[in-house]
Amino acid sequence: MRINKYIAGAGIASRRKADELVANGNVKVNGVTLKEAGYDVVEGDVVEVNGRVIQTVEDKIYILLNKPVGYVTTVSDEKNRPTVMDLVADVDGRIFPVGRLDYNTSGMLIMTNDGDFAYKLTHPKHEMPKTYRALVAGVLSNEKCAKLRNGVDIGGFVTSRAKVNIVKGTPKTTLVDITIHEGKNRQVRKMFKAVGNRVQQLERIAIGDVRMGRLAEGHYRKLTVDEIEYLRKL
Ligand code: URA
Taking the model in full, what pTM does it have? Predict the structure, then answer.
């Protein structure tokens, strides 16, 4: 495998950046600084980038699924409901969902077979920002927006600072984007309930800066190397 692909596969740089690392003398193979950008890594080679031994993760799978409403985010369901696994049945590898979206929530769900990556993305200490677009009943006043931004009590837990942007308001409903940093059970629904607006529809639209792009419901795409790298560093 070409050295730039190998480095990209380790998730530390895109292929283009990997070429630069080689050109700048930051890459060693078996202890010797690499001179050729086109080097083919062979079985048993020890590759170092900036003094750190790396291993390619080409066998790792990183998928972004646009989960529709009506699917549970588990590998199997005792009630026999459709699961997100049904939507990725053609993926060759034992992937699992990273985190959870409610049965009635749609949108971005990352699936992978990389346990470390999943751990990083879901561990509370990493405070991964997640953005949801919610359609809520009624008008969301400035006071309510301020409360949501500063933190609300959702039953024994006060949420941390959130970003709240109204996308569209009508007398009956408000469409609003909210970015939170925790992942408590049904957190967004509980936050809006705490200020008196029931969530009617909820979709996750971003994880950090990674957006779904044009992806039909029920479809998936691979995360790009840059997206994987970005999420790892976040
Ligand atoms: N908050 C919710 O209320 N539901 C989700 O699925 C995700 C976040």
Answer: 0.77
